[in-house]
């Protein structure tokens, strides 16, 4: 299982210089990748070329860009341009539906028929990335266009797929799923079998399963888990995440966070690998600077 870092904790600072330093450290320590959420006014795809020269070798991935605010032709152009600037660097275009409260409540857009939206979105996006040409008449999107791409290399595409229908759509059309707040039991019993079967139906290779969770090495697991439950409480309320926590038998997001001694955290990562996660993207967490330092040392030692 590859280990990468989740840089989304840097987003509240909105400081590109800090992000460059964060990515540079991850590269120096040998992590596989550097992942960034799309939230607020920091654009993930624009950040990647800005940090790339400071962090050679890292796979760069968005986790994730919501689809509803961006037409697939717009996102295709931005992703292809970002990939062209990055050259031979591996770029993962991680996308997702987001959530009804965010799309309708914050943005004033309709969240109607999200699965239909995702199917049509990918039917437009994927051909444009692959060839620069699409002829598609859908319900959510209809697009007929042909354009020269800024480069021949296309980014890998993955979807934040949790439910049965989204896993099927994702497995049949993309390179895998990006998970958040999903524990090993749910990966083994729900995520892996469904997305792998969907990919096999159309002759695609086994998909990547990228798992991201809060992780902390600490001698006070109870206090840190309580803090995680409080800080990440929103993920216990949003329906899609709540469903995954219920599958896992977890009362709060703190219950799926990987928290404990070095041995316990290492065992938690091994559980994810055994469940079928191909990648772990560490959302480093803690209540003290020592906990952050201990967590990073352990993760680096496991590379």
- Large-scale geometry: globular
Main CATH class of the domain at 161-303: Alpha Beta
Low-confidence stretches: none
Helix content: 40-55%
Radius of gyration: 19 Å
CATH T-level topology of the domain at 161-303: TIM Barrel
Main pleated-sheet profile: 10 strands, parallel
Q: Give the amount of beta strand, in percent.
A: 15-25%
Provide an overview of this structure.
It contains eleven helices and twelve strands. With 303 residues, it is α/β, with parallel strands linked by helices. The chain has a domain at 161-303: Luciferase-like domain (TIM Barrel), CATH 3.20.20. The strands form two sheets. Strands 1, 2, 3, 4, 5, 8, 9, 10, 11 and 12 form a ten-stranded parallel β-sheet that branches. The longest helix has 18 residues, at 114-131. 45% of the residues are buried.
Which SSEs are present, and which pair or pack?
Blueprint: E1 2-6, H1 16-28, E2 33-36, H2 44-52, E3 59-62, E4 65-66, H3 72-86, E5 91-96, H4 100-106, H5 114-131, E6 133-137, E7 142-146, E8 156-159, H6 164-173, E9 176-180, H7 184-201, E10 208-217, H8 221-231, H9 239-248, E11 258-260, H10 262-275, E12 279-284, H11 289-301
Parallel strand pairs: 1-2, 1-12, 2-3, 3-5, 4-5, 5-8, 9-10, 10-11, 10-12
Antiparallel strand pairs: 6-7
Helix pairs in contact: 1-2, 2-3, 3-5, 5-6, 6-7, 7-10
